[in-house]
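Quick one before lunch.
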Amino acid sequence: MVVAGLSSPVLLASLLALVGVCSARSDAPRGVAVGFVFDPKAKCEPPCEHGGVCIRNNTCFCSRGYEGETCQYANCYPKCKNGGACLRPGKCRCRPGYGGRYCHKVTCDGGCWNGGDCIAVNGVAKCICPSSWTGSKCQEAICPQGCRNGGICMAPGICSCPEGWLGGACHTAVCSKPCLNGGKCISPDKCRCRPPFSGPQCEERKKSH
Ligand SMILES: *[C@@H]1O[C@H](CO)[C@@H](O)[C@H](O)[C@H]1NC(C)=O
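Model of the 2-acetamido-2-deoxy-beta-D-glucopyranose complex:
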């Protein structure tokens, strides 16, 4: 049997008064209204747990934060959310993917980078990334222009280009020596010449017959 309303302040005050009387402390509060009968010879078997007091045969008065016939269960207020278990008063053990004092927050494994928000989508924690980032942790930058010729997108819109290429999308070849006579640098150190020119820099004029 469990005394109803165990967490009621009046009952708690009553019990504290009774405990005070029993332990004969001179500074214990006296004359507080007794809300229930306290039997000093009461036996509780199995015994009250977690500091609960046996007030009548097989009736435990639980200390704050515990409930159950023998005060065996911790309670958490607010209750543990999202399937979390109450470990001890006010302390929840959360299921994977949830965190916070009451398991009310979702947690994304490894966190969300670059300003991503961790939210629950159909009960699964997921990073929602800002528009210029992607990947499970928002760890990959997006280069809308693309990074060509082996370039790597390093930050939003910024490509890191291999040697010999330049430009926002690594689309411009670099010729260390200029292409002459209207020739065009089409890949690193390679000129495409306009007729009638030829040679590495389009510096030679073909002999016309
Ligand atoms: C409590 O139980 C004991 C035996 O375990 C019994 O002697 C006693 O009378 C009981 N008290 C009450 C108030 O029923």
